[in-house]
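Annotators were shown the component list below and the corresponding predicted structure, then asked to write short factual statements about the assembly.
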Amino acid sequence: MNIVVQKFGGSSVADTDKIKKIAERIRSRVLQGNKLVVVTSAMGKTTDNLIKLAKEISPKPEPRELDMLLTTGEQISISLLAIALNEVNIKSKSLNAFQAEIMTTGDFNEARIKNIKSQKIFDLFEEYDVITIAGFQGINEEGDLTTLGRGGSDTSAVALAAALKAPCEIYSDVDGIYTCDPRLHPNAKKLKFVTYDEMLEMASLGAKVLHSRSVEIAKKFDITLYCAATFSEVEGTYIVKDNIEQPVVTGLSVMDNQTQVTLSRLPEDYTFIHKIFSNVAEEGLNVDMISIIDDDNSLTVSFSIIDESKEDVESALHHSLKDLEKWNLTYHPGYSKLSIVGVGMRSSSGVASKFFGALQQIPIKLVTTSEIKISCLVETSFKQQAVEALTKAFDL
Amino acid sequence: MNIVVQKFGGSSVADTDKIKKIAERIRSRVLQGNKLVVVTSAMGKTTDNLIKLAKEISPKPEPRELDMLLTTGEQISISLLAIALNEVNIKSKSLNAFQAEIMTTGDFNEARIKNIKSQKIFDLFEEYDVITIAGFQGINEEGDLTTLGRGGSDTSAVALAAALKAPCEIYSDVDGIYTCDPRLHPNAKKLKFVTYDEMLEMASLGAKVLHSRSVEIAKKFDITLYCAATFSEVEGTYIVKDNIEQPVVTGLSVMDNQTQVTLSRLPEDYTFIHKIFSNVAEEGLNVDMISIIDDDNSLTVSFSIIDESKEDVESALHHSLKDLEKWNLTYHPGYSKLSIVGVGMRSSSGVASKFFGALQQIPIKLVTTSEIKISCLVETSFKQQAVEALTKAFDL
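Structure shown to annotators:
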């Protein structure tokens, strides 16, 4: 049985005309001899609208009930798609998370998939050619509905692909993964291949094509992922284990609205540092780039956060550093983070040198590196200049 | 445990402000010491809008998938209501048909409830004060979602009341059962009590307050039903086994858009008559009043249908009566049916006499009677005159 998992994003199922078009696309794949599992997101802005309704009633809606509410969005799109498929004589059945038995943890609003019973889907393929399955949702052990967090439909699709040992195709309004955001750099090139590791770095750095968790699962189960535009025949990007093209640097990610937080002249005491970061983490705040430099028996700690979490971070720091006035604490909002990513960096020297060479005209505020990534923070007014310098230097 | 089942119609949950108001009402009942099961319909026009979406894709949407689509409407309203209740510190949990295990037959779009496992709800009342449950929906043995037909949320509520051995309160924008539609007869009186049997006759005759099936279940399990307006303190109507007030005639129902179909000079052959009605029934068409008169060795058959099914009935008759021109077949559209209903008629004589006395100035086209009902068909131009004569004669 030739099974393929396809996932269509919210803009691809935004209205009934688009749903009919997708049904035609799926039909042609069935006629080529495939059985399809099709995962959809909610239509257009449905999820946002449901959240708006809940917020009209409560500023902090009960998480279990919010998930009960939000899961309706995907149930609407899968049933409409199944209606469209049956209308063009493709035998199709829709399954919500209950019916597909997508078991998750009990963490409402951010559950993680634990397992999927694939046998039911295999059985249904005896009678049906296409099973449409609600993305973004699952059930916990108590039979409560859960959701996987924003963008979770990607994760649903890849987890289903893993359960069915099938390849997974992700369709959206973006036609693939680019070396750099084409809005910033019009000559950005579309990548034919990108590795899981590169994609993980890029997804978390703001390349909004794929939900990170979905890439983690694809990597873990070695599922070939393919990203392409829904309403286009242009070839997209494959996300694979090894990149046969293997350039040293694959892509440049850019993220705005970064605040740099710096504490200087701290005592050389790492339990103190631990306390700072654990207080911030307890508030559920994400700290991104972290750099610590020990200089002349005092520590300087600098890290980046998104601008909008500044107040929360501030109150977490006040909480952990009672006598705050003793420390030299500064906030610099409105920075941009630029990162170059590439698995080839592991085995190639001179990348850092080229990176700093390209940016020598630009004041760099903070730098962090990993095995396959170099990130720096610059004032946003220098962003475009930095993008041009880096794309030129690394031929992106 | 003092359990009450309440049901709120679509107009009662049409927006978040109304949902918040209902939450306050429910809260005051909880503070009085009750545990509540609250069944809701979909918000406002949600179901109509979902049907419209499906029809944009297919003129005849696959029934199983249509139910999958429509059940989302009630899931939205129960989760929003649970959010509203938790917001006012009433511990509440919503259950869809899967979770409440509302088992139905497999007849998509018109399923019937087979059973409800009440133990789960009793268990949840250990922790929660209010369980909101999606009306209108169930699951069949295969785990597919089903719906109970339009107005089915009433049936869900009464079936839950039967399972929990609790009274059932139905709230809508109608504040009770009247002797006659107040739009036709402004002096119509609200009834304090009406019996199940009377309500069954009235529900099927166009009194749109309650879904007939819900009254059947209430009668079978002897559940006290109470109908009242959601946003009003005015007392409503109790639907009970015996009407302690027991007037001879309780109400007058009126239904427009009736077509009278008459076949005359038929052979005195009842297998032939059977064939006519079974052909009509096979098309799923409802025949209402039926009168057959044997006159001088030939039969005259007359029955009423709703105007809009005329063409379908016509083709069913053509099918059963090959040589249609042989028979004298006439259609009279645009009639109105008036029916007086009352359990007191069983033990009271002279009702028919009073009925015909009141209508002596009006040409009556067809009459049928049951133990607790007399119905007649008149031209709609005489409707208002007939309503006034009957309400006066029977003090309605």
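Statements collected:
1. The domain at 251-393 of chain B is CATH 3.30.2130.10 (VC0802-like).
2. The CA atoms of residues 279 and 349 of chain B lie 38 Å apart.
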